[in-house]
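A favour, since you know our structure tokens better than I do. It will help me judge whether the discrete encoding reads sensibly. The space below this message is yours for that.
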Amino acid sequence: MEPIAEKNACLDFAVRSLERVPTREESLKLSAYSTQTLVAAAKEATIKFADRVFNFCGIINAKSGRCSEDCAWCSQSRRFVTGIPIYPLINADKALEAAKQAQANGLTRFSLVTSGRKLSAREVRETIELVRVIRKETNLQMCLSAGLLTEKELQSLFEAGVVRYHCNLESSESHFGKLCSTHTTADKVKTLMNARAVGMDVCSGGIIGMGESESDRIDLALQLRALNVLSIPVNILSPIAGTALEHQPLLSDEEILRSVALFRLINPKAQLRFAGGRARLSREVQKAALECGINAAIAGDMLTTKGSAIDADRELVSEVGYQTQDIKTFDEAHLWHPYASATLPPPVNVAAGGHGARIVLEDGRELIDGTSSWWCAAFGYNRPEIVEAIQKQASKLTHVMFAGFTHQPAVELAKRLTRLLPEKLTKIFYADSGSVAVEVAMKLAVQYQLAKGRKTRTNFATIRKGYHGDTWNAMGVCDPVAGMHGFFSGALQKRIFIDEPSSVFGGQWDPGDIEELERVFDAQQDEICALILEPIVQGASAMRFYHPQFLREARRLCDKYDILLIADEIATGFGRTGKRFACDWAEIVPDIMTLGKALTGGAVTLSAVCTSNAVADTVSCHAPNALMHGPTFMANPIACAAAVAAMDVYMSEDWEAKVRRIESELKKGLEPLRKVSGVKDVRVLGAVGVVETERAADNRILAAQFVKEGIWVRPFGNIFYVMPPFVIEPDELQTLIVGFVKVTRNWVEEKI
């Protein structure tokens, strides 16, 4: 085989390893290639697949010596006499001093490392206090290496702020048994699983040069790949006098580079972290190791041996082409993302631009957006008409309070909305976001009933499986179980929940679906001011599509009992379901309608609460003779200008035809998943495609899988869905469908 063909064969192996765990037989074949070939292939794999932001972690030897274990290489074992310092767990002052120095050196991660089989109960408590002190005084992400801890012990440490747990496998399982008799590889794997079970990230690697064979190194790399470890320390044995391996011959430079290359090809996405032993390598060899796989390092001194100076490390990694600080690094340290941990943040992609249905990443890759940026970018990214409107308005008037003032963009937007809205909805109140629009709508409904003299009518009815936003009252009318806010159920005001209709869109209507609502209205009409629901499509709680007849019957009952009907069209308004508004499927008009998301084409935040003269007059003609709400940025001129342009775009094209095309392709493309075991349902309405699965999604894993397919999809719970921009091109839609089906199928079949 020609050298180029050999290199490509190794690269093909790395590509396969991205998708699945390679077999041992496949992996051992790598040994047949020359070091030159392996290194060349690993260089390309590092550039293509590994993180190009070099990650540094600081450590401190927080407890030294007197270890009960008999690990042959370790100077901290009490079975060897090595002359190392021996001391108990350090105090908070010393730990904090080291942590602050690490932060001053620009590090974002810091690890406490302790000797011994495991910490005692007292030491666990003391370590918790060390972590709390460091987290209070620094912004470092905390790691810990403290032996074979239980899940309960790790849970308490996680709650204190430890986000990553380190436990090296050290070598292949077969070779490790020759090096240590007091614990096993299985003990270490159990510890890693315990850490994962409580929510921690894990770090695990090994030491090369302890007499193992190359097949042992491959077995270690393969086991780490099977465990999906993404932070892998690579230590090079520097034999320490007094240990059982004190006379172990040093690995050659070639063996070291070959080993790094093998680890990279088997673990293409992992951080391979230079750790102990690298200080003895020449600068040239260290540079070569960085080029063929190393993209992280422990900065400063190791536990009982000298390390490298951080400034020299940064200079070296920059020469190789790595970044040492970037948007992601700062983001991870300081920004709190939606529905995410601040201490163990999920991976993020850096968006740098957008056009049409595509998000452009900082590195130039483009993702076809299957979510319309949480359903708002219906008309595509950077729509020229909307961008121009924003720029023009920003040069005239960026903002003015809406109390005592009006402006042309607010009026022009109202003109367009009154053309689009049902004739009955003539009054418009601008708000900041969808959730705030729901708050305003609920406040308006309460004021309406109070103005009518019905002082007890202050509660709300809604249907289960609904979602209405993240602010306080909006959370209260979200599904208390299936929604995202069950954690707050004890603090939220108790609302009246009706079972969601069982009759599905396109199916037979079951008259029994409306019976509970009628019973509740009849029994509790003196409590209920309004019924709030998402028409036809229940969004972020369940992605259910229900029968339009339920809306018709709900409208009838609201009229009968003089209960207001609030239609939350924030996600469905402006064509998402195939009609202008989802209410149009039932040919009903609500008393209050909330709009948002696509209102500005997803360019800036703005929402609207639309109501009738009857509601507005009732509120306005009774004390306090005003709707008691007034956001600071209400009717922001830039946002209104964007919305004017977005509504002009909406009215200028046949979006319903585009949505019908998307619907047709989604129905055809998603249908094969209906036959897959583990798929509970497949449903499509308009530009909304849903696959309901038995296995719950894990976006920390799935996000990267979707990105690899060139698409952006974000499932929740056991709901995999796509809601693409209406401007998506036919070939883009096919790419989205194919990638979505592939990843969803693999997830359901537990191939990822």
